Amino acid sequence: MGDDAVQHGSKVSRRSLLAAAGAVTGGAALAGMPRAARAAGRSFDAEADVIVVGGGGAAFAAAVGAAQGGTRVLLLEKAPAIGGTTARSGGAYWIPNNHVMRREHGVRDPKDDAVKLMARLAYPSVYDPQSPDLGIGEFSHGLISKYFDLAPAVIERIERMGVLRSQIAELRPGQTATDGIEWTHPEYHAELAENKAPYGRTLHPTGAEGGGGGSLMTGLATYARRAGVRVLTGQHVVQLATNGKGEVVGVQVQTDRGDRLYRAKRAVVFGTGGFTQDRSKVMNYLKGPIFGGCAVPTNTGDFIDMATQLGARLGNMRNGFFVQHVLEQALANSSVVDDLWIPPGDAMIMVNRFGDRVASEKTPYNEHTQSHFVWDTTRSEYPNLVQFMVYDDTVANDPYQAYGMPFPRPGTRAPYVVSGATIGELAANVQTRLDRLRGRVAVNGAIGPDVRLDDGFADNLQRTIDRFNGFARAGRDDDFGRGSTPIQVSWGGPRRRGNSKNPSMYPLSPSGPYHCILIGGGTLDTNGGPVVDASGRVQHVNGRPIPGLYGAGNCVASLAGQAYWSAGGTLGPAITNGFTAGENAIGEPVKEV
């Protein structure tokens, strides 16, 4: 859809547009605001009541929320096509106390316990269940408490509007409470005392299993367009336009046909994703090193650059929704399509460069990935920067064990798999592969790591395997508790015949061949950025909202803190807060230019 799809205002020359972009914001409404695009007169290429920036789930939810009562909404997407990272996802959204679990399946989700669960996982270092704000502060507690209220209400509303229909992801199709519920997957933290509803919060669009992100985007985008939302692609928003009072009144955009200045009479809402694909931001903000992420290539944190020019307060910058990747895939393309959720295989371990296990291999991805970030204060290094996924030939040749990413299907080969007839030969071949990867530069600037296996790697790996095999025979992992939580059992893979004790573990074979895959840390996307309140308003460093500026999704500071609450923990808040921000944006007063 081209530029003629929106209502045009008065055209300006390229010279006058760039002059407006360089002007200094006047007025004293928000003292100390530095340079920003200043709208002068009627110098706009198009006009709408609300402008939404982004093309994924958060942005389209905002567009749906704003497109009510005849509101003119313009959506601008940087990429050539809509969808963003949402289209790559499974399409699940985590909604506490949702109407499906309550009405169709009779599952209760008490608010006090759910808020405690969210707070404990989001801010574990300060969590205090006895404190009125649970130790996390009034602002953060308010966001989480409000999310519990808003999320089910928003999902029910968009279902009534005909945007999409939801079903519980953990249920087999067609099940109801009356015919005996068979839950397929528990929540990632089902074992915690605060989790009184370990099944039922994760929803996905009806009929959307196995790639539901596309179905989710289809529902949101189809409704938005029917509601009159104008969608333009290839629109790189680079600057915010403000008036003399410091209110946001539009955006400056770069297109392949030149620069544009678009007027937003009421507000601008950002839903543009995180900064996974901006190497400088990744290195300066995140808590540990990553090599890539699921985020689409356009997720470079543009909103951070623009909002901070207006004095926005930043939050949660060190966190992301973390996931592991095959190192060689991330170095080939930092926008990784395949993620390593919970590694498959029972006769499989993951070790660091010394040949030591560092965590339960079946821990959910957000938690397991952070084991890559451990700093060794003695050696002054990240010993787990690259982890080595070692498995035997029984796993490689068993279709029930090699059932998912990153194992190639039995009888096929993958270029990132390193093999060896013995543990010693495997170690030598792994080092050769590391040498080949050293210094390789990825698309986003990530560099192949300078990692060398310790001289005693092979011997120590054999000792580690022997110790693990003892745990597997006993059915209990005394080091890391592998298979001790509901999600580790559920996602641990199928139970091998003769293994009645712990289906997530089985002894590795005493003889080769053995196989290894190099694993690096990554993200689904980052989730830090400008701080927003429960209405979606971006907060200035002075504690007041920046007039006319809203945000939702991974481009803003996540209310989940360091947590990934469970499957759908990214899209649940993105849809809820995106819709809420869009709806609140239309209540903004018209801004003068």
From TrEMBL:
Cofactor: FAD
Region Disordered, residue ranges: 477-506
Pfam families (alphabetical): FAD_binding_2 (PF00890)
Keywords: FAD, Flavoprotein, Oxidoreductase
Keyword Ribosomal protein in annotation: no
Occurrences of domain FAD-dependent oxidoreductase 2 FAD-binding (ranges): 49-571
Classification via PANTHER family: 3-OXOSTEROID 1-DEHYDROGENASE, FUMARATE REDUCTASE
Stated name of the protein: FAD-dependent oxidoreductase
Organism taxonomic ancestry: Bacteria, Bacillati, Actinomycetota, Thermoleophilia, Solirubrobacterales
